[in-house]
Amino acid sequence: MVGVGLIGTGFMGKCHAIAWNAVGTVFPDVAKPRLVHLGEVNEDLAKRRAGEFGFARASGDWRAVVDDPDVDIVSLTTPNQFHPEMAIAILEAGKHLWCEKPMAPSFAEAQAMAAAAQKSGKVAALGYNYIQNPAIRHIGALLDQKIIGEVNHLRVEMDEVSWPTRRRCSSGSTRRRPVTARSTISPCIRCRWSPCCSAASPA
Tens of pLDDT along 151-171? Predict the structure, then answer.
């Protein structure tokens, strides 16, 4: 059985923990992974989260998770600025890696992570929601075959369901907006939170 380590237990860390716990239910033909070691910013929080999520061990130092010989794969769900150092350490330790998005704060750091993954020979995956989407794979094939030339910019528009004509945002404001089936939506101009807000406007 695969031994799992988890570093970071914020919102996405909880999502990863739930996902690991659900492997046996969703994929009954796959051996349920062992939740081995959880790392957090301090030992008290790590122990509390380990108890909640079912991890056998807990540490207030992420390096202890990386160094644990019983850990085969690490879910890395810390704030983005910590991804490069931690991801490279995980790969250099011979562990597989599941890193949450975005990959890194800079392109140079992302390149260093990619180089470490290639050198390690381990599986390194990023938590991009649409990575297996057929449209994304088709775009990749077009790029590989150099059918559309060199690409230096990509804009993706998401299909949206019809919006109600009036919604209320967290700021309490309301504003009528046209119902559209396809548009690029920017966040609310007041609450800056969600494109579902009525004050959000088509770009």
Answer: 888 777 765 554 444 444 444
Place of tokens 């390194």: 124
In this predicted model, what pLDDT tens digit does every residue of 98-149 receive, in sequence order? 999 999 999 999 999 999 999 999 999 999 877 778 988 898 899 889 888 8
CA angle 130, 87, 7 (to 5 degrees): 85
Radius of gyration of the chain (CA): 21
CB 132 within 8 A of CB 143: no
Where would I find the H helices in 61-132? 62-67, 83-92, 107-120
Structure tokens belonging to residue 48: 């509390």
CA 122 to chain centre: 18
Nearest to residue 197, comparing CAs of 168, 161, 159, 163? 168
Backbone φ, ψ for residue 89 (5° rounding): -65, -40
Omega within 30 of 0 (cis) for the link into 28: no
Cβ proximity of 174 and 190 under 8 Å: no
Cβ atoms 9, 77 nearer than 8 A: yes
Quote the CA–CA distance of 8 and 123 in Å, as a whole number. Answer: 20
CA distance 73 to 52: 20
Distance CA 5, CA 10 (A): 15
Cβ(7)–Cβ(86) below 8 Å: yes
Across-strand partners of 176? 166
